[in-house]
Amino acid sequence: MPLGREIDDPGLLASGRVAVRIIRWADAEPLRRLLTDNRSWLQRWEATHPSGRSFVPGSVSMRPMIRTLRRQLRAGSGMPFVILYDGVVVGQLSVSEISGGALQSSQLGYWVSEHVAGRGVTTTAVALVIDHLFSALGLHRVEVCIRPENDPSLRVVEKLGLRREGRRESYIHIDGAWRDHDVFVALRSDASAGYVARVSRD
C-alpha cells in the first residue's frame, strides 16, 4: 500500500553540478524537446503497450503525464523528479510503487539526454534520491530493474554498489516486446554513510 499521504516536496537535492527536484508544470516543454531530440537514444528502452497502441514520446504535450505523476505524489505512491545539470533539465527520474506498512519499499526508474551521458549525472541523481527516500521517508528498500542489455544503466547501479537479486523474465513490455529485467536493490542498512558518499569516492 502507498504511504497514504501526500509526500512533502523536498526542494532541491544537489551534489556538485547535479541536482533533482519535483517535476513542475513548466517542465512540460523542456521534457518534450528532450524526448524528441533523444528519440533514437531512448527508443530501445521505452515502455510500450502490448496491444500495439502507442505514441511517439515527445510528439504530444507532456502536461497529462505531469498531471498523473503529481497525482501520485499527492497520493503518496510516487515521487516524480527532473534531473538538472548546471541548473538545466536533462532528464527525468521517477520513484513509483512507494509502499508503507510492512514493506517500506519503492521502485526507481530514470533517463537522461545523450549529451550528458557518461558524466556521472545519472549516478549522482540516483544516489541523491535513494538517500532522500531512506532519510526522509524512512524506506527500507529501493529497487531498480534494468534490461541486461542496457550497459549505461548497469554502470549506474554498479558504481553505487547495489546488490543484484536476480532476473525477472518477460517483466516489462519495452520497445515492442516483453523483456527480461535484472533486479538491483539498495537497502538502508547497506549504506549508513549514504549513496552520495559512494559517488564522491569515485
TrEMBL record:
InterPro entries: Acyl_CoA_acyltransferase, GNAT_dom, N-acetyltransferase
Domain of life: Bacteria
Coiled-coil spans in chain: none
Keyword line: Acyltransferase, Transferase
SUPFAM superfamilies from the UniProt entry: Acyl-CoA N-acyltransferases (Nat) (SSF55729)
Extent of the signal sequence: none
Tagged with keyword Transferase: yes
Domain called N-acetyltransferase: residue spans: 18-190
Family: Belongs to the acetyltransferase family. RimJ subfamily.
Protein name per Swiss-Prot or TrEMBL: GNAT family N-acetyltransferase
Natural source organism: Leucobacter manosquensis
Lineage, opening ranks: Bacteria, Bacillati, Actinomycetota, Actinomycetes, Micrococcales
